[in-house]
User: What shape does this take?
Amino acid sequence: STAGKHPWQVSLQTSLPLTTSMPQGHFCGGALIHPCWVLTAAHCTDINTKHLKVVLGDQDLKKTESHEQTFRVEKILKYSQYNERDEIPHNDIALLKLKPVGGHCALESRYVKTVCLPSDPFPSGTECHISGWGVTETGEGSRQLLDAKVKLIANPLCNSRQLYDHTIDDSMICAGNLQKPGSDTCQGDSGGPLTCEKDGTYYVYGIVSWGQECGKKPGVYTQVTKFLNWIKTTMHREAGL
Amino acid sequence: SFIAPPDPDWTPDDYYYSYEQSSPDEDPSVTQTTPENPDWYYEDDDPCQSNPCEHGGDCIIRGDTFSCSCPAPFSGSRCQTAQNKCKDNPCVHGDCLITQKHPYYRCACKYPYTGPDCSKVLPACRPNPCQNGGVCSRHRRRSRFTCACPDQYKGKFCEIGPDDCYVGDGYSYRGKVSKTVNQNPCLYWNSHLLLQETYNMFMEDAETHGIAEHNFCRNPDGDHKPWCFVKVNSEKVKWEYCDVTVCPVPDTPNPVESLLEPVMELPGFESCGKTEVAEHAVKR
Assistant: This one.
């Protein structure tokens, strides 16, 4: 990717040891939807807030970039019906409330912006964008933010025997690249955004969740439109509005 | 705030779901895949859709795959390899630059050298190379000269004016500084030494980042100030920050006060989902 192309992309980092080699303790992605709120995958939040760091505006994980903004997390709010069955996460969505620094949360810049929440579904076949620092062909996480385009795939097709054989529920949406070898999200990209563009505006349509291997079958994303009310209710409740 | 109030009638289990419910197994288009393709590969894929050919190559569909027709001097399955006509150092007193027209290189001569291979030398200071009223003086060695620049102008040719400065991180810097903080000269962005670098004149959206056939400092990667590549030896390069001035910042009223505003009263940003990175059509 290039700097400023995905200004809502978030890096979740930890000081705890990780199983896969990831630069700077990065372990998951996220999407900034409000100066004080990050949308991510629930399966990324099995961690104590004191070990969690949220970095905004990052491009190269190993470089201290002047436009980076780092925050601690005040609260993790996991969707109550998040669960895993046969290692497959369902309702895989969570919100992170950022702890303000100097009286403010994220400050808008060329490299830090919020992404919009979608109000309508995008049709299958729509070309959308994925981004993250997850594992690549090398088997290790990328130090640079990478991105790719993928197409939304209708759930009935994704549930076919050749693909995920009826394991995709209505909290999920599939997306993949039609090229060979397929561009896809992978381990370490979880929680990051699947964004779709309409009239020059980007909407977070999915959250990177799971998939069988990487680049062979479509990636599976949390269907954000299904959780709009939960997102809004939670943010309003926590803000005391 | 852009966050609309939640729907008071909403209950957690009553979801709106808009996908068609046809049985995937009855759809013949779903099952017609060939063994060499991934299971989910569509038959009607356009392999050129994502424009896999680099450096302006034309993508040509060949059955279920593609080939790239590459503009010279690029070649390879995705036009990723550049033919390096500069390898044998054809520029005696100059830098060898890769171009996209025959003979696919040109020499950028160091003043006062000239000619296609920079082997001829002009008398220094004739005509006057110093810009903006600078006065040229010759040294005892014929090829050496100095420009005495008027106030506020600097640079080897007095080409850097008082307004040549950068704002913020210098992403928008389009000035003419071409020396680093260590006073090393910057390499041209189409130098043959940069062909393997991520940032060069042949990168995607180079023009958007102010990168073209010149050696001026730029900040295409969101670093904290303009930078450029410098030569380490005949093969290696490294990058260094540039000797560019920060533009004076206009006074802002009570910045401390604004930082102390209570968090909950802070609205969201004015808009969402908009980047400041210009999207350009990919040359095909």
